[in-house]
Amino acid sequence: MRIPELMERRRPFLSLEFFPPKEREAWPQFFDVAERLKELDPLFVSVTYGAGGGTQDNTLEIVRRLKRDMDMEPMAHLTCVGASAAKIEAFLEELRRADVHNVLALRGDPPKNNPDFDFSSGEFRHASDLASFIKERFPEMAVAVTGYPEPHVESPSIPEDLHWTKVKVQAGGDFLVTQLFFDNRLYFDFVERLRGMEVHAPVIPGVLPILSINSAKFILSLCGASIPGKFLSALESAHAEGGDEAVREVGLEYAVRQAQELIDNGAPGVHLYTLNKAEACLEIGSKLKI
Fold first, then answer.
1. Residue 5 designated active-site
2. Sign of the alpha-carbon torsion through 39, 6, 151, 117
3. Which of 94, 198, 201, 227 is surrounded by the fewest CB atoms within 10 Å?
């Protein structure tokens, strides 16, 4: 079923993001995690997509199995950087055959072995090109696009970033899922600005629990998300006193508070970045009042 229709039936909700394990030996454990997380009754689950072909086949097989064997509603991530229209169309045809009706349209990152990659050289330059392509060729598909409460690392300004967000929605985005953030004011300001631009698509906030001090540092370096000073200090103090176990406790407590505040103040639901870890997500879900 299409996610926009599911959202009309149930709010607030929890949804989950998984990434495909690269090694097949890890798949049984992955599906055990997914089975355990069914307890949270997620509205949908998304599955990431490897840049330049890394895990694309894995994404397809996993969304098939989540739909067929586990009765979950999957959303496949799809990146278009360096891809031909024929390859994109073939992937979407496979989703259609698998009765999967939801896609997250992404530009994606350049291949790791090509630092001088020219984005303008391909058939798809932007995520909006992909959203438009999907709507034209597969109109029955629901298309999600990404939103950035903190501007995209390549964006020169907030207005520029908002402009491109609107372009993605106008091209075919039915709803938005945000990049992770840790200050809820960023989300509410982002939504308010979009509404002022006559963009009324639902905006689902993405929440990531910090489970170790190294993951906090990795997040900061990877996507440019900022961690509020008080929270970062609490994480560092916890690490000094009790190591990563103490950091995990502080991180989970913060994630629960963040998610609850988002829901209590009008977010349609929360998209939880699971990191393929069942225990942390179950703990968050058990404490949320949804």
1. no
2. positive
3. 198
Question: Is this model's pTM higher than 0.85 or not?
Answer: yes
Question: Which two structure tokens, joined as six digits, stand for 217?
Answer: 């540092």
- The total of structural domains in the chain comes to 1
Confidence of residue 118 (pLDDT cuts 50, 70, 90): low
Tokens 């090509």 — which residue? 114
Phi–psi pair at 145, nearest 5 degrees:
-130, 165
**Which residue in the list 17, 39, 236, 245 is annotated as catalytic?**
17
Alpha-helical regions (H) of 177-274: 184-196, 213-223, 229-264
Helical segments of the chain, H only:
3-9, 27-37, 56-70, 85-97, 127-137, 158-171, 184-196, 213-223, 229-264, 278-287
Q: What's the CATH number where 279 sits?
A: 3.20.20.220
Residue 90 falls inside a structural domain: yes
Those residues with Cβ within 8 angstroms of residue 141's Cβ, 6 or more apart along the chain or in another chain: 2, 92, 95, 96, 101, 102, 103, 134, 135
Residue 76 CB contacts under 8 Å (≥ 6 apart), including other chains: 46, 47, 49, 59, 60, 63, 91, 95, 100, 102, 103, 104
**Domain housing 169:** 3-210+266-287
